[in-house]
Structure formats: C-alpha cells, structure tokens
Amino acid sequence: MGTLTVLIVLITMPHAKGTQKAVLSIRPDKQVYKEENVTLKCDIRGGGDTVWRYIWIKDNKVYKNSTMPEIHINSVNNSSTGNYTCRGQKNDSQPLELSDAVTLNVS
After folding, report:
1. CATH 2.30.130.60 matches 20-106
2. Domain boundaries in the chain?
3. Which positions make up the signal peptide (predicted)?
C-alpha cells in the first residue's frame, strides 16, 4: 500500500505543475484596420491568485514587461502587424513557457 501511494504521488505531481499555461487572446479580432484600438490579454490558466509579471513578445523580441495581464495598442498601424506571444513569471522564479503565437494583421 505504501509503494502504491508513492507511485500515485509521482505520477500526479508533474501534471499538477504543468497546469499553469499562458494563453494569449486579441480583441476585437486578429484582423483589424489602421487606427483601431487593440487589446492583448495574457491569461494564466491554472495560475490561481498568484501575482504575475507578464512578458510580452512580438516577433521573437521582448515588446513589453508589465504587471498587468492586458496591454492596449492604441491606433494600430502597419508596424503593429506581427506575431505576439506572452508568458507569466512569479517573483524571481523561471517564467512559464510561451503562449501559442497569435498573429495580428493590420490592413
């Protein structure tokens, strides 16, 4: 019975750790027109009440660091087009894996 309990703990622990994932969304849409306002939201699934620091990445370069889960791009233009990702980081710990990329197209 003791061996079985240890085995169950070893199997379930990695899954509990892997439940935190950054998910990026764009509003109003991924396809927008020049001078529209866009909001990017980084949702940490399984993050609970943790205070996160958000790292925003555009085209594989750090775009912005923030303590807020949303950033606003006012009056987008052609240079706003790109692939955006985000990740969360707690205090001095390792950051989470990058979210899946979301492509913003401005026309």
Report:
1. no
2. 20-106
3. 1-18
74-77: Cβ within 8 A, 24+ apart: 74/37, 75/34, 75/35, 75/36, 75/37, 76/32, 76/34, 76/35, 76/36, 76/37, 76/38, 76/104, 76/106, 77/34, 77/35, 77/106
pLDDT at residue 86 tops 70: yes
Angle at 42 between CA 98 and CA 54, to 5 degrees: 70
**Residue-level pLDDT at 95:** 87
Of 82, 58, 47, 86, the closest CA to residue 70 belongs to 86
For residue 4, is pLDDT > 50?
A: no
Q: What is the 3-state secondary structure (H, E, C) of 26-84?
A: EECCCEECCCCCEEEEEEEECCCCCCCEEEEEECCEEEEEECCCEEEECCCCHHHCEEE
